[in-house]
Design brief:
This protein is an alpha+beta fold. The chain has four helices and 19 strands.
């Protein structure tokens, strides 16, 4: 996929096997797409070029929405609002967030900014299930029969989640104060209670200067549907493993389209840049503590990428209640909702109370 074209492109809807015509799917942790029917494999060719960073302001002001874009087929979930793209020809499937049926006949065509990079899945669905089972076995205060929780494989889906990344050269002039701690000895109390203590005080001195540096890959979530809240516990991806975008990596997985526009993502990135600038200023001021009274921040050479990051989303049923869980498709980190055993917690609290009462009675008897 050549993202330098300024005309709108169309994504392939299906990767077909040259031998039998069946769909090819991406094999996690490899650079291969595989036919699940006859075993035929094809290699995803890797470009030696670095990921293309698009010039932010030029894109927003001059190049227009159709630049570096392609047309994809989208499925809209009428229940939770998630917009999902499938690289295969399904007759029907279920929403990755709420498991409600999605009908392919309800699909529509929509343009999106071509991703500059993708972080391919490193775990397959089977491994994601193993991570879940291990997590269940290690839960504290869980019901004894939680191991019987059922996972419907049909509802366990690998999802590529869209993010914006922003780069910029940052320069900031600042004024503030440097605080250095010192201690004075004071006498407090009187009589037998008289004692000396060390009281910490701060000596403030004026500070001013300029800081500058490169802000690399500020990561901004590009979706805001109510079902799209990927927990922070599974949102730590290593971007060092990003690969140049190729639609073959999407084969067999669901891809969510961004719903936070580029310009809104840029505003979030600017807020993050301000926090970075303040941290650099505090480090530049030095001392034990710092005050920043004025900061003039400027960003230049701003670029951006649209990237896709992997996560498994599913749910399990226990006592007629559905609990959602998420597995990072790269690291295997897991986070999920879980039930608690009322009786285990009750008996544990009761045991603590009994121990405290026994200790108190023994102490009273001994005295």
């Amino acid at each position: 996929m050549n993202s330098t074209n300024t005309s709108s492109q169309t994504s392939e809807r299906k990767k077909s096997c040259v031998n039998c015509g069946a769909a090819l799917t991406y094999e996690p942790g490899t650079d291969l797409i595989t036919c699940d029917y006859c075993g035929h494999q094809e290699t995803i060719e890797q470009s030696e070029q670095l990921f293309q960073e698009l010039e932010l302001h030029k894109y927003l002001q001059e190049m227009g929405a159709q630049s570096h874009s392609m047309e994809i087929s989208m499925l809209h979930c009428k229940n939770c609002g998630a917009n999902q793209h499938i690289e295969e020809s399904y007759k029907s499937l279920h929403c990755v967030y709420c498991t409600m049926p999605l009908i392919i006949e309800d699909s529509y065509q929509e343009d999106w900014i071509v991703p500059g990079a993708v972080l391919p899945f490193q775990l397959d669905q089977k491994k994601a299930h193993q991570v879940f089972k291990k997590w269940v076995d290690e839960l504290w205060w869980a019901p004894n029969n939680l191991q019987r929780a059922t996972i419907n494989p049909e509802f366990t889906k690998g999802l590529y989640v869209p993010y914006w990344t922003f780069d910029a050269q940052l320069v900031a002039d600042y004024e503030g104060q440097r605080g250095d701690y010192y201690y004075v000895t004071k006498t407090v109390g009187s009589g037998k209670n008289k004692r000396t203590v060390q009281e910490r005080r701060t000596s403030w001195s004026p500070a001013a200067g300029t800081i500058n540096g490169f802000v690399d890959d500020t990561l901004v979530k590009a979706t805001k549907q109510r079902g799209s809240q990927i927990p922070r516990e599974v949102s730590n991806w290593s971007l060092d493993d990003l690969k140049n975008f190729d639609t073959k990596y999407l084969a067999g997985y669901v891809t969510e389209k961004y719903t936070i526009p580029l310009k809104d993502g840029h505003l979030v990135a600017n807020k993050e840049a301000e926090k970075i600038a303040q941290n650099w200023i505090r480090r530049d001021i030095g001392g034990d503590t710092q005050r920043i009274s004025d900061m003039d921040m400027r960003l230049s050479k701003e670029t951006f990428k649209h990237i896709l990051l992997p996560v498994y989303i599913s749910s399990y049923n226990f006592n007629d209640t559905k609990y959602n869980f998420f597995v990072n498709g790269q690291t295997g980190a897991i986070y999920g909702k879980r039930p608690y055993s009322f009786w285990k917690i009750f008996l544990a609290i009761l045991a603590v109370i009994i121990i405290i009462v026994l200790i108190t009675l023994v102490a009273q008897y001994s005295s």
